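We close this part of the discussion by returning to an individual protein. The sequence in question and its structure tokens are set out directly beneath this paragraph:
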Amino acid sequence: MSQSLARPGRISLRLQASLLFAGLLSAPLPAQDWPCFRGPFARGRANDDAKYPERWDVAKSEGVLWKRAIEGLGHASPIVCGERVFVATAVRKDGGAAELKIGLYGAGESVGAEGEHRWELWCLATADGALLWKTVLREGAPRFERHPKATQVNATPACDGTRVAVMLGAEGLHVLDLEGRVLWSKDLGALRSCAPGYPDLQWGFASSPALHDGKLFVQCDVHEGSFLACFDAQSGKELWRKQRDEQPTWSTPTIDVEGGRSQVIVNGYRHIGGYDLATGEELWRLRGGGDVPVPTPIVEDGVIYLTSAHGKEAPIYALEATARGVIDVHTEKPAQVRWHHLKRGNYMQTPLVFGAELYLCHDSGVLSCYDRGSGEQHYRERLGEKTGFTASGVAADGKLYFTSEEGEVVVLKPGSKFEVLSRCPLGEPCLATPALARGVLYFRTRGHLIAIGAPKR
């Protein structure tokens, strides 16, 4: 099933050394890395003091370090580990272009049969975008169809400095070393991600894996047999699995290791909750909200921020990370709920905390800013006219970045007042959340991976 392909391009001695020792060392990832969906602990903030660009022009190659064509179609975000950037893609074997329908529309139909695919993981050099290797993870016809705005590889890989995990839903869970060799793969079954109650409206799997302390966590909320599972990242041995009474969701689990306990936190509709990292024991749960949960939970200073939308409710919750038991926000306010709004949440994007503010971007491009301590709304402003927003917002160097589906990046000044610093088009549709590392923004567009930043001297 799996094979490594040619490794064209020159590789620096430093990179060769890092690849050689990657399987031998288990030191923590450098703080500047962006190893998973939305970076460390899914917070969406660059974890360094580097200078990040405020404006660029892709059409004129101004501020563009390199631009690499990526075969196939995928919304899996790029991740950065050291001198390597990883990106997953699904390539039609007939050479045809996969349909992608962007914009604001409510149709939930599936894309018809698209023939056989190759699911691949690419490894590029951060310095110049040179292809170091690519590995085929699976070949064949997709087990399920997808939404016209989705792809056959929506989940973002995760790296712990020793190995890379790629979750392809019904096409399997795959773990590779940093040289592209597959360590193990697992078929997790018929993970049908569909519109709730409508199994024929297949939308595609999108929950990314989480790696922490040698353990790999996957959230598989699907049409039948939903579960949360933990595996030994090196061997693939299943350490625990918890069945969940849950309908399809598209949220990525979040690891929280603060507040005197370690937990994996999941969004949901019937079962939002926290589970003990080591045993899978349920610590707390919350029910209700939007019936198609997509945003990932984030934790800041001991507070969990959650949102969802679709259906009757669109909540925002600010919960104590030390919560216990069953929480019901529809009765008298529990002590472990800092604040909540039941009608202001968003559908697709994961929230962003920067400084004292919490930012939520609606898929219509309306950005709301709240005081994250009190829940008071500072503003609600539109980022773009008649365009959709799917990628989650990120932040670095005193700047906020929000990317429209048409590929315009809106750069904002953080704070309680709405202030646009620049608008920078990428030249192609973009639905993947960017990666940020060492002063560089990595955007995965319809057909390219684009590195934007100041030239290294």
Remarks:
- Residues 34 and 320 are 26 Å apart (CA to CA).
- Helices lie at 13-22.
